[in-house]
């Protein structure tokens, strides 16, 4: 659909009513407390999701797996059930109290992460990874829906960016804490427990990082407020009330496809580049520089924990400042700027001749990638009516995960095994993937600007 053919801004149809009533806001203190808990929850989300990237070598050895099988376990087995249950759960998010959905999801994915540590073959590990995906599918749509109802538009990108610190902190801790655990548990050797039998270091790592998430679920349910939904009459925020049907949501997305399609593709391609590098970075340092398993995670975790929070806060600040100045394109403009910075670092990182230079390039890629993360998520909320945010966020996150976590690692693995036929060519495969995906992500980020601005104006005029 051409940009010039976008329909003029108009109210959401009667089938998806969005009356613009004022609602009693959640106090700033309670809103920021919710953000803090959401951040911790997302940290455990990514800690549980990505700790497996550190365990590739021992899992391959003990279960006799290939790089392609590992990429399927890390990616597609995770997103398969994420997709299957994500949309039904998102419909609950648009109708029901959201914090209970998040709490149940956290508890379930935490238990399933621990279950990964009890796996003895490919299919047992695959089923556990599917379970992690089921639990984590509850988190994103409900979290972003609640956050958008707690903060005004000119403060939303900053709040979402803070929440996304949980993503980079979880990824960093998966590398740092997971790496330290792998090193320590490997030195300790196999351990035998009643009922569980003998467990190896990689199995104990899953159990240790998984179970604490249950406590986070209890904290969230007990202390986070359920906000009233923006644009609705008071009293409806937390109850199960009528929401737009799935057909209404699809019609809305179809009307604004010129805004949503390039936005989603841009962030999906960027996630392919990001997750492809993240998943294979520990193995890259092991194969390229002969580092021992666990050691890359410590260094990569330190770099991530230093540069990513700075990038996230900077990106949220930039987007909120532009929004407050009256620029409706603020969120996607920052995403475009961030994408420009990511590409050269992502290409150069795996080509560096020394570990120190590789870590510098890795840090640069993470920094610029983090700048765009908060504004990209905020962009989806800004142009989506309140009672549609759960479903639209679920669709957005599903594409993000399928492209990023499913296709990103798989693309690198297939290039390594099928094109180069040599595991030691992993660095070249990573660089080639970045060189192909980077310009594509840039194009779609630029392509989204004008239609996104039109959609953002309509959202502002209609009170969401």
Written description of the protein model:
The chain has one domain (24-232, 242-461): Up-down Bundle (Growth Hormone, Chain: A). It is globular, with a radius of gyration of 21 Å. 75% of the residues lie in helices and 1% in strands. Helix 4 runs antiparallel to helix 5 (122-136). It contains 17 helices and two strands. It is mostly helical. The longest helix is centred in the middle third of the chain and has 36 residues, at 153-188.
Index terms:
single chain, 464 residues, mainly alpha, Growth Hormone, Chain: A, two-stranded antiparallel ribbon, 75% helix, globular, disordered N terminus
CATH architectural designation: Up-down Bundle
The end-to-end span amounts to 24 Å
Give the overall pLDDT as a whole number. 84
DSSP summary: helix tally: 17
- Characterize the largest beta sheet: strand count, sense, and whether it forms a barrel: 2 strands, antiparallel
Order of H and E elements: HHHHHHHEEHHHHHHHHHH
CATH class: Mainly Alpha
Whole-number radius of gyration? 21 Å
Give the CATH topology.
Growth Hormone, Chain: A
Would you identify the regions where 5 or more consecutive residues have pLDDT less than 50? 1-24, 234-240
Summed up:
The protein has 464 residues and is mainly alpha-helical. The protein contains 17 helices and two strands.
Secondary-structure blueprint:
Elements: H1 28-50, H2 56-63, H3 67-93, H4 98-116, H5 122-136, H6 139-150, H7 153-188, E1 191-193, E2 197-199, H8 201-210, H9 213-223, H10 246-255, H11 257-289, H12 295-324, H13 330-348, H14 355-382, H15 389-419, H16 426-447, H17 449-461
Antiparallel strand pairs: 1-2
Helix pairs in contact: 1-4, 1-6, 1-7, 1-9, 3-5, 3-15, 4-5, 4-6, 4-8, 4-9, 6-15, 7-8, 7-12, 7-14, 11-12, 11-14, 11-15, 11-16, 11-17, 12-13, 12-14, 13-14, 13-16, 15-16
